[in-house]
Known about the structure:
The protein is mostly helical. The chain has a domain of 49 residues. The chain is 66% helix and 4% strand. It has a two-stranded antiparallel sheet with strand order 1-2. The chain is rod-shaped, with a radius of gyration of 52 Å.
Amino acid sequence: MSKNQNSFTESEQIRIAKQAVAGGTEDLKRLAEENNISQQQIQDWIREYNIEAPGDISDDVSLEASENFVDSVEYGATFDNLNYNRLTFWSVFGTSVILIFIISIMFIHEYTRTSALQRSDESSLYYEINELQEQDKETLETFGVVDPEEGIYRVPIDSAITIMTNE
Length: 167
C-alpha cells in the first residue's frame, strides 16, 4: 500500500473511510497517522463515498409538524403574526420623538435669531447714543453761528461761564 495521499486507490480510500467510521474518533486519528494523511482527508472520503456508520438508520425518519408549519409550507412562506399593539406603540412613539426633535430645533433657532437681533439692536442703539453725545459735546465746546440774521452765536459753555462771572 502506498503512503502518498494522492496515490491511494479508490478501494483503499473506501476501506480506510469505513474503518474510520466504524471505529470513531480514536480510529480516525490512528488511521490518519498510520497512512500519513490528515484526518480532514479521511473525513472528505467519508463524505465523498457516502459512508455511514454501522447502526445508522437514515431511511427511517419521521417528522412531526404542527398545523401552523404545514399551513406555512403549503402557503410557501410563513404567515405574519403581527403584534398590532406593539407596532402602534412604536409608530406613535417614533413619530412623537421626531416631532419633539423638530419643534426643539425650531425653538432653538428662534431663540438664537432673537438673541442675535437683540444684540444687534443694542449695539446699534449704543452707537447712535455715542454719536449723539459726541455731537452734543462738540456743540457745547465750540464756537459757532446759530442764526446769522438775528445775530445769535454759539459760545462754548466754559467761555460762557467765564463771561458771566466777569460781568
